[in-house]
């Protein structure tokens, strides 16, 4: 594990190595590669990627591997894990095309008892319900609804509800998670589908986020110019309809394929928007809410690799508690295999009760090619943060050297 971490840190702390590596990941994530370039079919290529990048950032290709990884992460002191099934459909705004990393998500239907059954939706349902069985009470299930296939994303594009089969699957998932005290994060995806995703996320909140309890969070991408106004609109729905608003804030994961006009012009604008949303929620002051209108019930989840954002948010949260000022519950998340320094810095910030904040590690599981597509987006999203990993590289190199000296000294 140490040597793998050192290898990845060596690559990620050097731009001349990182950029070509990202291009290679992009190449392998494309569908319909010939056998020799197919991650699933070429055993040598599969083994190389599996033992390096995949094992560093992903939980497993099988349920058994995934359960073992989940236990390892929680043993490090994290409150829990966020686990997602990697199947999804990606839309590239530049090319106008959509594809599914890994197995092609073709629309297949069969007749059963006179009812049309979409095999892709059923496969997604089975994989997502299976993911619930890999985690425990207090953990979080993240879902990518586009993974349910063309029938679902085509409905999202038109502004329609997805097929009843998908609605039934979401109801089953929400019910199982509520019964087992597992929360759900509805992941943000391409803006090509996002309005439909927001619609079903809000519907799930209405049903499951009752009595001040949060089962479902929706994800808001702060790099979007519209994110602040969208949050205010959804806050209004929560206030009007009396459900608790599950607010997860990220910077954004689709900058390489999204319509650039939708995204803030500078990283500074994105940072300011992210911090404004996070700190506004913690102060219970967003737009007119908390000023001229009562602030509704909100639970906040901050997913970020930006140390300043999360540390300042936790400090503000503790300051308000100490001063007896209103605030909201907050939890934090970073990706498995990335920004461990940020995660452990948060864990070291004990509150007045002596307990650390709720920090989660987010991982994904699924086939090699499905997860490579996921890793590529995360690499693009966190490129600036990844390039600032020289300190981690130096520490890993020093520890590897210490262990080698100890080994030869003992001999």
From TrEMBL:
SUPFAM superfamilies: FAD-linked oxidoreductase
Catalytic activity: L-proline + a quinone = (S)-1-pyrroline-5-carboxylate + a quinol + H(+)
Segments forming domain Proline dehydrogenase: 134-386
GO terms assigned for molecular function: FAD binding; proline dehydrogenase activity
Transmembrane annotation, as ranges: none
EC assignment: 1.5.5.2
Gene3D superfamilies: 3.20.20.220
UniProt keyword annotation of Flavoprotein present: yes
Pfam families found in the cross-reference section: Pro_dh
Top-level taxon: Eukaryota
Keywords, ordered alphabetically: FAD, Flavoprotein, Oxidoreductase, Proline metabolism
Signal peptide: none
Coiled coil: none
Cellular component aspect of the GO annotation: mitochondrion
GO biological process: L-proline catabolic process to L-glutamate
Cofactor: FAD
Family recorded in the similarity comment: Belongs to the proline oxidase family.
Stated role: Converts proline to delta-1-pyrroline-5-carboxylate.
Designated name of the protein: Proline dehydrogenase
Record organism: Curvularia kusanoi (Cochliobolus kusanoi)
